Amino acid sequence: MKLLKYIVVTALVIIAIIGDIKTALGSDKSVDANKIKFAVETSDVWTPTFQLCWNELINLVGTDKIYYVKSNPKLADELNLQPFNKQDLNDKSYYISVSKMTKKHKNEIKKAIWKKFKEKSDILDEFKFENVSDKKTNKWFIYSMLLKNFEFYTPFKILESDYFNNSVENKYKYFGFTKNITDKTAKEKLEHEYMENLFYINDDDFALMIADKNKQEEMILYLTDSDKSFDDLYNEMLDKINNKNEYIKERAKKISDKYGKYATVKYDNYYKIPFIHIDEKINYDKELAHKDIKDKTYNTTGYTWEILKTLQTIKFDMNNEGAKLKSEAAVAVMMKTALLPSPEIHIDNNFYFDRPFVLFLKEVGKDKPYFAAKIKDGKYLIKAQ
Predict the structure, then answer these.
(1) Helix count (H) and strand count (E) of the chain?
(2) CA–CA gap between residue 98 and residue 347 (Å, rounded)
(3) Strand, coil or helix: what is 55?
(4) How many Cβ atoms from other residues are within 10 Å of residue 135's Cβ?
(5) CA 320 to chain centre
(6) What percent of the chain has a predicted confidence (pLDDT) above 90?
(7) Half-sphere exposure for 185 (CA within 13 Å, toward CB)
């Protein structure tokens, strides 16, 4: 079935979805950038499925946080802050299960995700489920799946393959609309209702948002080669969005100084975005597993828990029709004892994401993204045939 039908929540920048940048980002009020915390980073790709499992683990153990008998791993402390929870998502997009680790519950999870998403799990078979009754095992299984299908209102044009970040080693596939486009109707429709220039300081500093065709999802592309955390990059971007009018005035003055103060300026926007394919498998066993965790009754009973195995997968595909995100995470745990008419001057805004950039996905009306990826090089891009 075409990727179009599965297109995930990867829209690229919302756009006049509401006509107001703050509203497009999910709020009628200016967002305090200092308060946006969502990602516990372990790689260049992030989605909240493992955090959702960790939140459920806290509930299962019965404490306000996860406390290791010995000093907490740094990753555990970061996860304990719970910067993202299921209230930050539409319940139609995720599934969570907490159950005993038996084959019966494995089959229940399979049936549940098929019923809700028409999807199969990529990770369940990597865990060993016991063929026993619930009463006969002290092992628990915490599982989450996030599925987002994002479809553009109309497909972008497939562009000529090109290099990325000035590297001439490989050419990659791109889509968008450039100066030589012939189908201006599709571009104008997208720009009018589904896209927005969040800010454009110069050719090396800009952000674009695209909404999905239902205007329920947003994808934000922010050109930057910074290696800051996802939280910091997102807040940095919000600051620039809040200062958009100042950037417009500064740019207008420069154009006025160059072409004369009576020149009428019309900005023509063009777009160039790479096809993306991400397929990551991550485990956190080294930091989190095989260490004793305190039970809520630890001080009186000495009961502890132990994480036996962790796993998270992140699959993200984007082409000119849209995108699909599928992520799963699981934690196997055992209970033990002891985001005037004048000349018209055309100035090009080239939103060319052919250099390092960061990508965020979020739901309309939510402050926090549920997906982030740093595109630094060709690792996640699709090579030209």
Answers:
(1) 10, 16
(2) 56
(3) helix
(4) 7
(5) 18
(6) 77
(7) 0
Taking alpha carbons only, the member of 83, 42, 66 closest to residue 295 is: 66
Residue with tokens 């889509």: 175
The residues that bridge with 277 in the sheet, in sequence order, are 317
The answer to whether 378 and 356 have CB atoms below 8 angstroms apart is: no
**Per DSSP, what are the bridge partners of residue 112?**
none
In 3D space, the residue among 6, 14, 4 whose CA is nearest the CA of residue 215 turns out to be 14
DSSP letter string over 56-78? HHHHHHTSSS--BSSPPPHHHHH
Residues paired with 271 in a beta bridge = 177, 351
Instruction: Please name which of 222, 174, 206 lies closest in space to residue 360, comparing C-alpha atoms.
Output: 222
Predicted pLDDT at 342: 64
- CA-to-CA distance for 210 and 1, rounded, in angstroms? 24
Three-state SS at 136: helix
- What is the residue-averaged pLDDT of the chain? 89
pTM, two decimal places: 0.83
Q: What pLDDT, in 10s, does the model give residues 167-213?
A: 988 999 999 999 987 778 889 999 999 999 999 999 999 999 999 99
Higher pLDDT, 9 or 163: 163
Distance CA 372, CA 286 (A): 23
Compute the distance between CA of residue 139 and CA of residue 228 in angstroms, rounded to an integer: 38
CA gap 270, 173 in Å, rounded: 17
Beta strands per DSSP E along the chain: 45-46, 94-100, 139-151, 157-164, 167-177, 195-202, 205-211, 217-223, 264-274, 276-282, 292-294, 304-319, 322-336, 344-352, 357-363, 371-375
Identify residue 13 by its one-letter amino acid code.
Answer: V
Enter the tokens of residue 106: 């494995």
**Three-class secondary structure of residue 248 per DSSP:** helix
Whether 329 and 49 have beta carbons less than 8 Å apart is answered as: yes
Rounded to a whole number of angstroms, the CA Rg of the chain reads: 23
